[in-house]
Design a protein that fits this description.
13 helices
């Protein structure tokens, strides 16, 4: 199973598909073609025989009804020669399916892994070497403008992960308040994981309900409770959201009564049981049997 550290940056891009284009342009100087729409596309890049190929994420940029660029997104925490061998196949299969230019972006947590991933992958055919486009701590955009942080919260969250500058931390507070409430606890934990103790205290001070006029109740329900208690509540909210997502993905009708019962439950073990049952029940109401 992928670790939390592994999946969070990918979820951030999945929540905001246009972020892939922003990172390409601002982190890598890549010339992104004009587009009118950015949407998540399936990350299943399977060739029917014999090996299943699944990237960590994929984004499709469209101009009207025309596909203009597909972005395969990979999260690489450490060197893995087997994974690099699959990357060219990811691009080729997605290019064939969507019939548009396709690029590979690799997200790395440290500079050493970023340098390793950036090395060319030789296919053998002349001129057909794949040089991955790599984003590490050194070229992640740094967001200090609060207006931009509120406009693109996910980019501010990536920016603040590992960056302890006060202006960046202030921007991420604005971003957290502006983002979808269902994602706040994920983003807050992700930012905290990349900060040293001094920066963590600085961020928690900025988020104090006594010193910051929140437009939402996030600080009161999460930070104001204390970090550990808040995280427990955040995990319960995450589990409840996963129950509803699984039911919806399976095409099951979720009544208002079922939704209210799931969302109001705060017992994490009960919710985890419902997550498991949500993959097999024939009706949403059967969760509670």
């Amino acid at each position: 199973m992928p670790s939390r550290e592994h999946e969070i940056p990918l979820r951030i891009i999945q929540n905001q598909p246009a972020l892939a284009a922003v990172l390409l342009r601002e982190s890598l100087g890549f010339e992104v073609p004009p587009y009118t729409e950015a949407l998540s596309t399936t990350s299943v890049l399977t060739n029917c025989d014999p090996k299943e190929l699944n990237s960590d994420g994929a984004t499709l940029l469209r101009d009207g009804i025309r596909n203009v660029l597909a972005v395969v997104v990979e999260r690489q925490n450490k060197p893995d020669r087997g994974k690099r061998a699959s990357w060219p196949a990811y691009l080729v299969n997605l290019h064939v399916r969507l019939e548009c230019p396709t690029v590979l972006v690799v997200l790395c947590p440290d500079e050493a892994t970023a340098r390793w991933c950036a090395g060319p992958i030789s296919i053998g055919h002349p001129g057909f070497d794949l040089v991955p486009l790599v984003i590490g701590p050194g070229n992640t955009p740094v967001i200090t403008d609060v207006e931009r942080a509120r406009a693109v919260p996910e980019l501010a969250v990536l920016s603040a992960h590992g960056d302890a500058e006060p202006l960046t931390l202030k921007a991420v507070v604005e971003a957290l308040d502006a983002t979808d409430p269902r994602n706040r606890t994920f983003y807050y934990d992700y930012v905290l994981a990349g900060l040293n103790e001094t920066a963590r205290k600085e961020l928690e001070g900025l988020m104090s309900a006594d010193t910051y006029k929140w437009q939402s109740d996030f600080a009161r329900k999460y930070v104001g409770l204390g970090r550990e208690e808040g995280r427990e509540e955040g995990r319960a909210a995450e589990a409840a959201n996963n129950v509803l997502l699984f039911l919806d993905a399976r095409g099951l009708t979720v009544s208002d009564e079922v939704r209210q019962r799931v969302e109001s439950c705060t017992d994490l073990e009960t919710l985890r049981g419902w997550v498991r049952r949500s993959t097999a029940v024939e009706r949403a109401e059967d969760l509670f049997d």
